Amino acid sequence: MAVMLNKRDLTSFRFDWSMKMRTIIRVVEYLSLYRSRIYKSQLTYNVKLQKHLNIIPLLIQTGNYGTLIEKGIKNSTCGELSLVDVGTQVKLRGFLQYQRHGMFCVLRDAFGITQVIVNNDELTAKLDKITFESYVEVIGEVLERPEGQTNTAMKTGEIEVLAQELNVVNKARKDIPFLIRNHNMPSESLALKYRYLDLRHPHLQDNLRFRSKVGKQIRDYLQDVENFTEITTPTLSINTPGGAHEFVVPTQFEKKFFSLTQSPQIYKQLAVIGGFEKYFQFAICYRDESGRPDRQAEFMQLDLEMSNANFPEIQTLMESLIKYSWPKELNPLKTPFPIMRYDEAMENYGSDKPDLRFSFKISDVTDIASQSDWTPIRSALQGNMVVAKAFVMTGGGEYIKKSHQKSWEEIAKKEIGLPGVSLLKVQNKNILKPMTGKAFSEKLSQLFVNHLEAKEGDVIVMSVGHKSKVLKLLGKLRLAAAEVLENNKIFVRDKEEFNFLWVTDFPLFEMDETTEKLITCHHPFTAPKPDHIQKLYENPLEVLSQHYDLVLNGCEIAGGSIRIYEEKI
């Protein structure tokens, strides 16, 4: 039987005992004994109970979980005990992570790990038979670790628990597929097969709890600060042509089907038309994009829609939202985020979502390459609309091999449709030497090196062909070059650095290479820039859209646009 203490000032409360015996317990004063045990809670009612304390469990509600005080035993997690708890009787429950000769073990739960000492022959024999990952309950006393045995890598590294009782709540099989160890991770296929076991890994626990925490922060900001309304829209919908393939859901009616929504697009715009000026939801989207290995069939996105908004307002909103939700453990963000035009991103980085943590900027070398007598370059420059572009892979000369030349040429031919790529090592006296073939002349080498500001030990990655294809290829190889360096412990992308970037001024249309017809670059309802409306009738390929993407370290994490609201457009 348990009694809940609420935040209201209580002077007395009642409960029924067996055989209808009634006892009145009065709250007399705070018990300082438990003050340090429940510091996480806003509710710190420390009470002194009368003679019934030894028979009546008392549940004191805390901020995150309950603290059970039963016969003087504190119900604790495996990540909270410290020196202030020394001498306290505690009850722990967790998975058996380690055990050694039945003398000590380590319990793990969602909050951390705690070392347990066993010096009782009966408990030692019992512990020795318990399999790893069994769920175990320990009752014991908190002790300070002996001098020199503290573990600063553990939150509980200054204490240990001397076991007085040891019970198996749920025993694991001896032949479990894998143990929870950071140094011996399971393969991806094995981890997915036994997902429930894989989820016990601390990094996955941290990821899901982090996601939950950020989600709450986002909700709080949008609702409490910006006055957004959260609306849940249907996921069963009708077929909407265009975009990705949809998942079809049969019904009990013959030849009647639903489609799972690719996004809440239709419903959220109906909500806005209906008078909800600021809408949001955490929407689950379904897209059958099996041909794109970087896409999930089912994913969740933060979906927002606003009436009467322009890009500067959206920019301010999103930056404020991210800043509000940003974890305090990470370096604080600087706002406003920089803005880059689409054509600038493509020219310099070969991508509309550039990773700015490292340079490797693309430069035009058409004029210099045209002076080359090297057959692959000279022949490639003969066509119309042909350019030569290159970037410098700083310090790559030691790590680039012929195998890279071969694999990168495969990318050029199969993915881009270009004949190949040139890898030029900067050797002694700044002479350029291709992976195959003779070295460039001293004069030509010097022109390349000076223009690109390369130095001995670097690699110049160059491609020749149609401009759009060359930029696309070099954008891919720029990332591949960074990966080669990092595989050799030369880290050019700081994992602690977060480079946000707005990309704007996307083209509204592009030409489909297969059908040679105009198609929209993004959504068909994206509005053109107001001063480009006339170009819709004159030269559609020059029209810029009011679309914008938010990029973080080379990944598009958000995107949106101003909608078309004029019927004639």
UniProtKB/TrEMBL annotation:
The keyword Transport does not apply. Keywords: Aminoacyl-tRNA synthetase, ATP-binding, Ligase, Nucleotide-binding, Protein biosynthesis. Residues 208-323 form the Aminoacyl-transfer RNA synthetases class-II family profile domain. PROSITE patterns: AA_TRNA_LIGASE_II. One of its GO terms (biological process) is aspartyl-tRNA aminoacylation. It holds the Pfam family tRNA_anti-codon. GO terms for molecular function: aspartate-tRNA ligase activity; ATP binding; nucleic acid binding. One of its GO terms (cellular component) is mitochondrion. Gene3D superfamilies: Bira Bifunctional Protein, Domain 2 (3.30.930.10), GAD-like domain (3.30.1360.30), Nucleic acid-binding proteins (2.40.50.140). Belongs to the class-II aminoacyl-tRNA synthetase family. Type 1 subfamily. NCBIfam families: aspS_bact, PRK00476.1. This is Aspartate--tRNA ligase, mitochondrial. It comes from Armadillidium nasatum. The gene is DARS2.
